[in-house]
Design goal:
Length: 1246
């Protein structure tokens, strides 16, 4: 290079690299690329730029010199400037993020590798540089590997560009091969030998944190005795450093000369970091993270303690998060650590693991490109148009999965399209905008979203803050103070707004104070001044970047929703949903916790976003904020997966809808909402629409063709129901195909159908109208009106019949529909015969219901059923005689076998062959249904009475009557309503002190009430005969009346009076006022004498009653207790309040005889109690049977006269049993009474 003017430079002779200066310069001159390998401390970092300067390379451009860290770039620049005896910013300058000391005179420019990459966006060929030094290449950071790939492409286009790769003696061969076998120059590094000592903690056991700390303390104690010099201890994190510092302070507390324990890690405040490099007199133990391995040279170190582990950032392909696990370090890292103690004299490195463990470790640490997300690299490459990442000349090709994940993250951000394809995906407009922003792609996406949501100012602040270390300091010894000072910035819902609050505070503070005062205040309030300046600088840079893209910055403050919806666009895979265990379910089934330092740690909102997910001991979300779940879907529209369930027809919407579930990376964000399904799956929607809307007739607006088709379908379906077959009407599938053949393919909702049909009918009016033949599979001539009537006739009533063929339906079979108002007019007879078509099935079922001993006489049942139906006359079929009576009689005639009525088991007969009764209300709704009519009549009797009163009783019912002043009293009234005549039965009703006219639903009930009401109305017109009786009755009779067993004599006299009136009325029931007057006058004339005669009879009854009471009074032997109780109970059934009118004049003479028989029984009891007991047992059995028959009378039914009158049979049998000489009214015996009971039982069954 003859044109290059050399410059004389001074070099520190003690540095190893100086000894090889000539060899290095010759290699640079002769080769475009060289690899310089030298251990830490060899001087390569500070002397190489000077060598290039000396060779004149600064004449054609700058000498670029990259460092992995900003601290190193700044300190190295200062060191070179000092050695050149020039101020920083002249020949030597540096440029790191937001700090640039380079000038037009700068020849050597120190910078971070990220800065050089950023410059390539505007200077793709690096034209302003004549030489590039990539320092610390062995660290293999993401940016270093990217730069090495870019330079590999660039050297062919810039043959004049010199590239020097410096590295510790690690992987130099790989670097050489990458640059076409570039020469490797090795420089000796250590000045003094280093002794390595292996002191494993516990062979074969897992090491605990306490074991490691104790091992460090033991190793430090032994090294302190070796001689002077500081000790450097490598640890994996801040917490381990604090715990170890506490333990070491305890260990060395008693030493006469104090030992200073000094921490060194990235989050330390600037003043604490600077302590490391300040001169000191006392001995130090420096506790450092792996930042001290290569980047910083800690002065005065003679000893190193290496526990053998470090936090290594690793990207998890499975969870898609960046983890920070503690891992064993590689051999290369272990050797780097050992190299730190041979600078000032012979050193000792104590390794807290075995030599065998060391030899089994990997040779090198995995480069960052193999363990990180590659989104930034992919975006930069696309922005710089460097081609497909899969073909890019990386030093080591990254894992295909990591490449894919990087592309997918960009697709998540909307920066790229086509992540699923093998070829290079396409950069979008969003991606191009993000690529021009000097921040992480996630943050760039947030800024773009902020422009749409009107919150750019706020997002500039937040994204700038997320790009730097937190300006809020929290020194170990001032944690409580820091928390108190920083509490004012906390927002309960969002850590991001905490940044905004801090920004606003700092901005106001800066306006109020001078620069120096502001710096001091920041220090007082534990706010890192330099980080604040970095924050402000980045804000300014980002603001300039968005303005260049035409993005407007809002002046008005943005609301919470806008800010966090913008943040959400960059954090779509960092959403969390709290589960029942208060963990957060995140993307791809991951689970994480809120970082304890967050303002939301205690609140734990249901939904949140996290700026980052970092795995240490657990997976933590750092910098989190509460969000609303409804914000997610619009932001992730391009990513969400939609699943559709239960597609169905909505009559209300006239369209097919489905339940939509929306998930984002497996996280359920919409659990279930109804959406129209037509556009999603038109084929399936059309199928469902035809089936549900047309075939099943569920369209909201019934169109004319549907009405016509439905009418035909119903008529055919009725034939099926009647004949109990399902093979007449075409099936759903056939009907579906009939519509399917006509309808166009795009008809899947009501709106489209109507629009098409209204147009199509103009050309073909009958389109979609089917014929009856099209709807029938076969003819149904067997379904006749005789066998399958549409109505049931009973008297004047015509009741509609409904046919249902649904075996599981409650109405399966034939139903007779009875309007409630005519329920009282329907008689049970006839219905038991069923319709003619089902009669044979009914008879077969009845025969099969018989007990086996009877059933076997009628096998096969169908033959006997047919024979029975042929044997009955038309008058018998459906007549007043019950089917079971006729069937029993006919079967006996055929076989001679008698079938008792109680042998038929109706419960075993299938419901569908029995008539079903449905009672309909005014609105047509079913009020009740049953297979027995009487059950419904009793159940609905109150409702029926209410209905009759409402329809027929308004003009008839009256109350408070004391005289006949209401005209004529009809026995029944009829009122026409619709198809039916409502029939009600008005009658008088005794209501105590007066009489009322009430409406009854039954003629029998009305007649019973009318007699009692008439009797009361007559009584109200006639004076009481009490005074007459007092005058006419002898004293003995009066005494008997006054001492009746139920109290007041007036009640007894009234009872006698009622009996007298009943006997005088007899069958003379008046219908009008005139007839009532005649009856009243007649009764008034005869009542006193009639009542007197009855009173005399009553007197005799009461005397006999009194006699019985005397006989069973007093102390009763145990042998007589049961019989005496029976006598007492019997007496209570003969003499009781109201017994006179109950017995009536005719039976009062019998009552006297029954009482005489009871006296005789009581008198005989003590003589032969066993004989009395035997006789009473006969009566008890008969009476028990009688009471059982009472229970068989349906509730609400009137008691049959035969059943009620059996009482007199029992009374006569008692006379016959206990006082035969008194005689009986008719012949009685135990056998006769049993026979009578059997007859009554048959009557009840019929």
């Amino acid at each position: 290079m003859s044109e290059v003017v050399a410059r004389v430079i001074k070099y520190p002779e003690q540095l190893p690299v100086v000894a090889d200066k000539k060899r290095i310069q010759n290699a640079i001159r002769d080769n475009q690329v060289i690899i310089l390998a030298g251990e830490t401390g060899s001087g390569k970092t500070t002397q190489l730029p000077k060598m290039l300067l000396e060779m004149g390379y600064a004449e054609k451009g700058m000498i670029g010199h990259t460092q992995p860290r900003r601290l190193a770039a700044r300190s190295v620049a200062q060191r070179i400037a000092d050695e050149l005896e020039e101020p920083l910013g002249k020949t030597v300058g540096f440029k790191i993020r937001f700090q640039d000391t380079a000038s037009a005179d700068t020849s050597i420019k120190l910078m971070t590798d990220g800065i050089l990459l950023a410059e390539m966006q505007h200077d793709r060929l690096l034209q302003k540089y004549s030489a590039i030094i990539i320092d610390e290449a062995h660290e293999r950071s993401l940016n270093i590997d990217f730069l090495l790939g870019v330079l590999r492409q660039l050297i062919d286009k810039r043959p004049d560009l010199k590239v020097i790769i410096t590295s510790a003696t690690i992987e130099t061969e790989r670097f050489s091969k990458h640059f076409a076998d570039a020469p490797v120059i090795a420089v000796e590094g250590r000045t003094f030998p280093v002794e390595t000592r292996y002191r494993p903690l516990q062979e074969g056991d897992d090491e605990t944190e306490q074991d490691v700390i104790q091992g460090i303390c033991d190793a430090a104690s032994s090294l302190v005795n070796e001689g002077p010099g500081d000790i450097l201890v490598f640890l994996s994190g801040e917490r381990e450093i604090r715990d170890t510092a506490d333990a070491l302070n305890d260990t060395f507390r008693e030493l006469p000369q104090p030992i200073e324990i000094v921490p060194l890690y990235a989050r330390l405040s600037a003043s604490e970091q600077n302590r490391i490099f300040q001169p000191h007199n006392s001995r130090r133990i420096v506790l450092a993270t792996n930042v001290a391995e290569t980047s910083l040279t800690v002065p005065g170190i003679r000893y190193v303690i290496d526990p053998g582990s470090a936090r290594i950032s690793r990207y998890s392909y499975r969870t898609k998060v960046q983890r920070l696990p503690i891992e064993p370090i590689s051999q290369a890292s272990a050797n780097q650590r050992a190299g730190r103690c041979g600078r000032v004299g012979p050193g000792i490195c104590v390794r807290l693991y075995s030599e065998e463990d060391f030899l089994n470790r990997p040779e090198f640490t995995d480069p960052e490109i193999l363990r990180t997300n590659l989104a930034s690299v992919v975006l930069q490459m696309a922005t710089l148009k460097l081609g497909d990442i899969r073909k890019f000349p990386f030093l080591q090709r990254p894992d295909e999965r990591f490449i894919t994940d990087g592309i997918r993250l960009l697709e998540e951000l909307g920066a790229m399209q086509g992540a699923g394809r093998k070829q290079q995906p396409k950069l979008t407009a969003v991606g191009r905008s993000i690529g021009r922003m000097p921040v992480d792609p996630r943050l760039g996406r947030m800024l773009l979203a902020a422009s749409e949501l009107g919150c750019v100012r706020e997002l500039l602040v937040i994204t700038a803050a997320l790009s730097i270390q937190d300006p809020r300091e929290r020194p170990h010894d001032k944690q409580q103070k820091a928390d108190e000072l920083h509490k004012r910035f906390v927002d309960k819902d969002s850590d991001f707004l905490g940044y905004l609050n801090l920004w606003n505070y700092v901005q106001e503070l800066q306006k109020e104070l001078s620069g120096n005062q502001f710096r001091k205040r920041c220090k007082q309030e534990l706010i890192h001044y330099l980080r604040v300046r970095e924050w402000q600088d980045l804000y300014t840079q980002l603001r300039q970047s968005v303005r260049e893209q035409g993005i407007r910055i809002n002046e008005e403050p943005a609301d919470y929703s806008s800010i966090h919806r913008a943040l959400l666009t960059g954090l779509l895979s960092h959403i969390g949903n709290k589960d029942e265990k208060h963990q957060y379910m995140g993307a791809r089934q991951s689970r994480f916790f809120i970082f304890p330092g967050s303002a939301l740690f205690s609140a734990k909102p249901k939904w949140l976003i996290a700026a980052e997910l970092v795995e240490t001991s657990k997976l933590y979300g750092r910098y989190v904020a509460k969000i609303e779940p409804e914000w997610i879907e619009p932001a992730a529209e391009h990513l969400v997966k939609r699943n559709y369930h239960e597609p169905r027809f909505s009559k209300k919407l006239g369209a097919v809808v489905a339940t939509e579930q929306v998930t984002l990376y497996g996280l359920l964000i919409v659990a279930g909402r109804r959406v129209q399904y037509g556009r999603i799956d038109p084929v399936e929607s059309r199928r469902i629409f035809i089936l549900e809307a047309l075939v099943n007739g569920n369209l909201r607006e019934v169109l004319p063709f549907m009405k016509a088709n439905q009418k035909l379908i119903e008529s055919v379906r009725e034939l099926e129901d009647k004949s109990r077959r399902r093979d007449i009407l075409i099936d759903e599938e056939s009907l579906f195909h009939a519509y399917d053949e006509v309808l166009p393919e795009d008809i899947y909702d009501e709106r489209r159908l109507k629009r098409w049909w209204q147009h199509a009918r103009k050309a073909e009016p009958q389109i979609l109208c089917f014929s009856r033949e099209q709807l029938m599979q076969q003819e149904a001539s067997h379904v006749t009106a005789v066998d399958y009537p549409d109505e049931w006739a009973q008297g004047r009533l015509r009741l509609p019949l409904t046919y249902v063929f649904e075996p599981n339906d409650i109405d399966d079979g034939v139903s007779v529909d009875i309007p409630l108002p005519v329920l009282n007019q329907v008689e049970p007879y006839g219905f038991d015969w069923q319709i003619p078509a089902l009669r044979e099935q009914l008879v077969i079922a009845l025969i099969k219901s018989l007990p086996k001993n009877l059933r076997r006489n009628f096998v096969p049942a169908p033959n006997y059923a047919q024979a029975f139906l042929q044997a009955i006359s038309p008058e018998e079929a459906g007549g007043e005689l019950a089917l079971l009576q006729v069937l029993s009689a006919k079967l006996k005639r055929m076989t001679g076998v008698e079938v008792p009525l109680d042998a038929w088991n109706l419960a075993a007969v299938p419901d569908h062959v029995l008539m079903n009764f449905r009672i309909l209300g005014e609105d047509g709704k079913v009020l009740g249904r049953a297979r027995k009519l009487k059950d419904l009549q009793h159940q609905l009797q109150p409702k029926l009475t209410e209905t009759l009163k409402a329809t027929a009783g308004d003009d008839i019912e009256r109350e408070g009557l004391t005289d006949w002043n209401f005209g004529e009293a009809p026995k029944a009234v009829e009122k026409k309503t619709g198809r039916f005549a409502i029939k009600a039965f008005p009658a008088l009703k005794d209501e105590g002190k007066s009489v009322a006219i009430r409406v009854f639903d039954s003629e029998a009930d009305a007649e019973r009430s009318h007699r009692q009401g008439l009797r009361k109305l007559v009584m109200l017109q006639i004076p009481s005969p009490v005074n007459y009786l007092r005058a006419k009755l002898p004293n003995k009779a009066k005494l008997a009346l006054y001492f009746n067993p139920w109290g007041k004599v007036e009640a007894l006299i009234e009872d006698c009076m009622l009996a007298a009136i009943d006997s005088l009325i007899d069958d003379q029931l008046p219908n009008n006022d005139e007839e009532f007057r005649k009856l009243t006058n007649m009764i008034r004339a005869e009542l006193n004498d009639k009542t007197l005669g009855i009173a005399e009879q009553v007197e005799r009854c009461l005397l006999l009653s009194h006699q019985v009471q005397k006989l069973i009074k007093g102390k009763i032997p145990l042998t007589l207790v049961q019989s005496y109780n029976d006598v007492k109970a019997h007496l209570g059934r003969l003499v009781y309040p109201g017994f006179v009118s109950d017995f009536g004049v005719v039976r009062l003479i019998d009552a006297e005889r029954y009482l005489k028989a009871l006296v005789q029984r009581a008198e005989k009891l003590p003589v032969d109690p066993n004989k009395d007991r035997i006789r009473s047992l006969q009566l008890e059995k008969l009476e028990a049977h009688w009471q059982e028959l009472y229970k068989k009378v349906p509730k609400g039914d009137p008691i049959p006269t035969e059943l009620a009158d059996f009482r007199w049979y029992l009374e006569e049998f008692r006379v016959s049993t206990f006082a035969q000489q008194l005689g009986t009214a008719f012949p009685v015996s135990e056998q006769r009474l049993k026979q009578r009971l059997n007859e009554i039982e048959k009557l009840l069954r019929a």
